[in-house]
Amino acid sequence: MKIYLDSIGCRLNQSEIERYSTQFKMAGHSLVSTPSESDLVVVNTCTVTSKAAADSRTKVRQSNRLNPNSRIVLTGCWSSLEERNALDLPGVTDVIHNKDKDDLVAILLGIAPHEFDKEPVARQPIPGIRMRTRAFIKAQDGCDNQCTFCITTIARGSSRSVNPQRIIDEINAAVAGDVQEAVLTGVQLTSYGKDLDGRNNLKQLIQRILQQTNLPRLRLSSLEPWNIPKNFFSLWEDSRLCRQIHIPLQSGSASVLRRMARPIEPVNFAKLLETARERVPDISVTTDIIAGFPGETEAEFTENLEFIQAMRFADAHVFTYSPRPQTAALRLPDHVPSKVARERSRMIRETVAKSKTEYAQHFIDKELVALWETAKKLDKSGWEVSGLTDNYLRINSIVARNMLNTLSTVRIITVGKGGIQASVIA
Ligand code: SF4
Predict the structure, then answer these.
(1) Which of 117, 272, 281, 387 sits a CA distance of 20 to 30 A from 393?
(2) How far, CA to CA in Å, does 388 sit from each of 219, 243, 392, 397?
(3) pLDDT of 356-375, one tens digit each?
(4) How far is the C-alpha of 290 from the C-alpha of 321, rounded, in Å?
(5) DSSP conformational letter for 337
(6) What pLDDT, in 10s, does the model give residues 229-277?
(7) Could you tell me the pTM of the whole model?
(8) pLDDT at 120 over 70
């Protein structure tokens, strides 16, 4: 069969279709880069916001329009929570619920899931728009917290960890596929190992990856600011661990955090960042923030904005609160008018943009290591490349040859509206 894979939303969804890609190939099928060429389309849907849910439906309709003969199978958070609506979409024949999604390929091919327990084949990027230079590796799924705005914990269920040896095998398969950087993903990574034998928490897993693989670069995806293992930041003594941590704040107001049912106080969040910055100089701290959470008063918003300013984030995903079905926040009083909520988002983005520029300017004339993720041939003057430094600066450069998917030492030259320009020095 010719299979087209697509996903919306988080890195975890990306890591899951990357695993499907390897499994379909192990079973003798091929991957194609557009729905038009496919016999089967698999879409990993999302519902973290109402827009993500709408984007999921749009992708399905587009696939069906491009190839009405191709069978469409849905999985992921939107289709798991709205199975009836999902099956009503044109071309959709099956919905694989999130609780079964790890066995999606085995279910669709009617084979035993353990067939894939063999050594995974060397990773090859998924063809098409989901092609990624970096490999996304699933380490954990689900969450035991009940943040009142969050639909992910409802859609993905309780926290569960992937067997550490399986993670090592997938990273080795990625390295065999010439991957330079892997991103460890999960819903609530810091709860890794809780359901295992007690000898594997997130710190021990990262140590194991760095000891047992030749992976040049490891990056961590989102880490909730609680359950951070003891002495966690000593891990960064290994320069293969990217100097970036993404720690969702959601709000800098203590009373809003309580209404969100998030077990963290702003003062402890600030202490965590202080420790990280002490132990890992120049570390990039990025975050998620929700503006206009139900009941957010002007005073709470001011408290939130001042806290965000004080934290000097290197970047942030800023969301305007999106009411999600089945979440407790939906039933909270005093929802903020959307016009006010959007204005608050704009002000937060403006504040983050300042600290983001300051963080990047701090590296002018300094050396960093970049992984080139895109390369475009220019006429006679070489190649235009763009990539990511270990501390998550998106940079551009003009080079003499195609340096796609290679690591090189660069010097940061300028930081401006057009982006960050760098020169390759080795
Ligand atoms: S920690 Fe909160 S926001 Fe994060 S996945 Fe769990 S419930 Fe959702």
Answers:
(1) 272
(2) 11, 12, 6, 11
(3) 999 999 999 999 999 999 99
(4) 6
(5) P
(6) 989 999 999 999 999 999 999 999 999 999 999 999 999 999 999 999 9
(7) 0.94
(8) no
- The span from the CA of 410 to the CA of 407, in Å, is 10
CB 152 less than 6 A from any atom of ligand 1? yes
Phi and psi dihedrals of 225, rounded to 5? -75, 20
Q: Cα(323) to centroid of ligand 1, in Å?
A: 15
Lowest mean pLDDT among 138-147, 189-198, 337-346: 189-198
**Which residue has the CA at smallest separation from atom 4 of ligand 1?**
188
Give 145 Cα–ligand 1 centroid separation in angstroms. 6
* Residues 6+ positions from 285 with CB-CB distance below 8 Å: 244, 245, 247, 273, 276, 277, 311, 312, 313, 314
Cβ-count burial of 231 within 10 angstroms (0-12 exposed, 13-18 middle, 19+ buried)? exposed
Q: Which of 11, 150, 159, 257 to mutate to test the pocket of ligand 1 (most atoms within 8 A of CB)?
A: 150
Q: What is the largest CA-CA distance in the chain?
A: 62
Q: Of all atoms in ligand 1, which is nearest to the CA of residue 146?
A: 7
Q: State the Cα–Cα distance between residues 184 and 126, nearest whole angstrom.
A: 18
Across all residues in the chain, what is the average pLDDT? Answer: 95
Evaluate: CB of 161 within 6 angstroms of ligand 1.
no
Residue 161: strand pairing partners: 140
